[in-house]
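Worked example

This section walks through a single chain of length 387. The input is the sequence exactly as stored; nothing has been trimmed or padded.
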Amino acid sequence: MTFSIIQKMSIPSSCWRQRSKMKAFFVRHRKLHIWLLAELALLAVFLAVRGNRTWMNALATHVTTPLRRAIGSLCYRVNFSVAEALCVILVVFSAIYITVSIVKIVQGRGKRLRKAYAAALGAVCIALTIYGGFCFLWGVDYYTDSFQDRSGIRASAVSTEDLTAVTQYFVQQLNAAADTVDRDADGLFAVPREQILAESTKVYGAVSQEFPFLVFDDQVPKSIYFSRTMSALDFTGVYCPFTGESNVNVDSPACMLPSTIAHELAHQRSISSEQECNFLSILACTTCGKVDYNYSGLLLGYIHLGNALCKADNDAWKAVYDSLDATVKADLMNNNDYWKQFQSGAVKKASNKVYDSFLKSYGETAGLQSYGTVVDLLVDYYRDAAK
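Given that input, the structure is written out below as tokens.
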């Protein structure tokens, strides 16, 4: 019979002390660490399953979209933007949080590093919670069937000839619509913003008949009180998934307000793609029967088409632009002059950089340039009408 002797391995005391310190460190900030791990786990699950179109469609159809709309039905019971109020609260909270954290760190003496870590970890957890909520309430829609998938209208490469023809078609329609809207003493678009907002709930009537999956009971979008700040950030409108509200900038020129509203109402229909929302905005505006919306939609369409044509064939663009009615040119110039005052702002540049990164993170690989895709959709849809 053979006996074997098993030697008991001892763990050095330094290792035990290290483990004890790590355990004490985790316990000391247990709630924050559990919060952080929970958020990271949820985000990891989202990143892992977002490529499954079937799951994303089911989640959006049965959970996130009904939830957003239920929240929106509550937020629309008040006449101010709940989204804007939450933004103000977040800014105030952030200022207070930073101030209190600095005071605690300064007064911490021997515990300053610990206090600084707790403050930083708390900020990260809050940021991840907001981001996680955004992914659940809206990020899911970036991985569901798109408008192009459901409608059969596809953005594809277009010829310069077709681009020129469709741009000319929009110019003809614009010139015909120029005198149908109210204008001020300077000849500029002067339809009251209150009227534009009041008409918004009927804009998608015709489009919803053509594409039944776009049927939705619209509410009047919320006017942003700090619209000037919104302009500095280079935004004309925003859909907030946390409140289910469409919010619009009422400081920028009114000629673009109808098409902005129609764009945000497209987001209400769970259309996440910015270029698809621009296309739907133009289509809805030009088919709703409202002269101010029709003019604004044509104006937005011409801006996209004209910019594309200018790059593709500058001579053709000059000829088309020269044929524009003087009042249309005045509205375009007025709009350009308004936004020029914000072009050199550091806030705008930072905002554009952040939003560009945001678009790319959700699969719009061209970033802000993805807005150009609307041209392909417009040419595909209006090609026959332009002939």
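What to look for: The chain is about 65% helix and 5% strand.
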